[in-house]
TrEMBL record:
InterPro entries: NAD(P)-bd_dom_sf, Sc_DH/Rdtase_CS, SDR_fam. It comes from Sander lucioperca (Pike-perch). SUPFAM superfamilies: NAD(P)-binding Rossmann-fold domains. GO terms for molecular function: oxidoreductase activity. PROSITE patterns: ADH_SHORT. GO terms for biological process: steroid metabolic process. This is Hydroxysteroid (17-beta) dehydrogenase 2. Keywords: Oxidoreductase. Gene3D superfamilies: NAD(P)-binding Rossmann-like Domain. Belongs to the short-chain dehydrogenases/reductases (SDR) family. Pfam families: adh_short (PF00106). The keyword Oxidoreductase applies.
């Protein structure tokens, strides 16, 4: 339970508190709020329940604040990075003794390998995230949502569809190529969309 409290405090409640503190100034200056969420808030991923729930709360909070504060000309932006490398060791070591017992050591032991597979598909270069933050802060008309990352636009669409969760497919030992397949599909879909718009 401590992991849930920590994630909610750091990833969600701190943003709420900061927004409340600066709200009078933001209204007067027609300012801007930029919240850093995560694709984990939209796409369910094993072992990331606490983190994902806290980021989902932040994303919904940001969308509601965008609607409510637009009356005062305050802009609220959400950034949801996808597919960037994180520390897999922290995820595995954070597993509670109850989780280790419930899932079994075989599953827990397999996580570094599975997370390593995901990590190989993840980008090390964080410049797309930095670019999104800069645009969100400095653009005259920032977007409501930025999804930097190779599949940032595609994963939420899949998560809301009736297709099987791509992350679960990826972690399934029978389907280690699932994300590569999804990535190829997303590139093909993007290409077809561009061709349609150009015609």
């Amino acid at each position: 339970m401590a992991a849930y409290r920590l994630c909610v405090d750091v990833n969600f409640l701190s943003a709420v508190k900061m927004s409340q503190v600066f709200l009078p100034l933001l209204r007067r200056s027609r300012g801007r709020i930029v919240n850093m969420s995560s694709m984990a808030g939209d796409v369910a991923m094993p072992m990331l329940a606490a983190y994902g729930a806290s980021k989902a709360a932040l994303s919904v909070f940001s969308r509601v604040m965008r609607l409510e504060l637009s009356v005062w000309g305050v802009t609220v932006v959400t950034i949801q990075p996808a597919g960037f490398r994180t520390s897999r060791d922290e995820i595995v070591s954070a597993a509670s003794s109850e989780a280790r017992e419930d899932y079994g050591m075989a599953y827990i032991s397999s996580l570094p390998g599975r997370l390593s597979q995901m990590s190989r598909q993840s980008a090390e270069d964080l410049s797309p995230v930095v670019d999104a933050v800069c645009h969100a802060l400095l653009a005259a008309r920032p977007k409501a949502l930025y999804t930097p990352g190779r599949m940032g636009w595609f994963l939420p669409m899949l998560a809301r569809s009736e297709w099987k969760n791509p992350v679960t497919l990826y972690l399934d030992s029978q389907s280690v190529d699932a994300l590569q397949t999804i990535n190829r599909l997303s590139v093909r879909f993007s290409t077809e969309c561009l061709q349609t718009f150009n015609n």
